[in-house]
Amino acid sequence: MEEFSLRLQALLDRRGYTPFTLSKEMGVSRSLTWSWVRGNSYPDLYHFAQLVRILDTDANYLLFGKEI
Fold this sequence. Notes:
The chain is mostly helical. It contains 5 helices and no strands. Helix 2 packs across helix 3.
């Protein structure tokens, strides 16, 4: 889970997002996005798809660290 949160944080940094701005963009609570960034939980499938779209990344990269 730690690797997911590190990739998520790197993508947020690259896009100029903070967990707070991401939560506003996604329409979720700040505590939920912080939970993902801290590595305490994973997003569900719906929110994962939102992350991929908002952060303009490959789902395989976000999950596994490599694009296919």
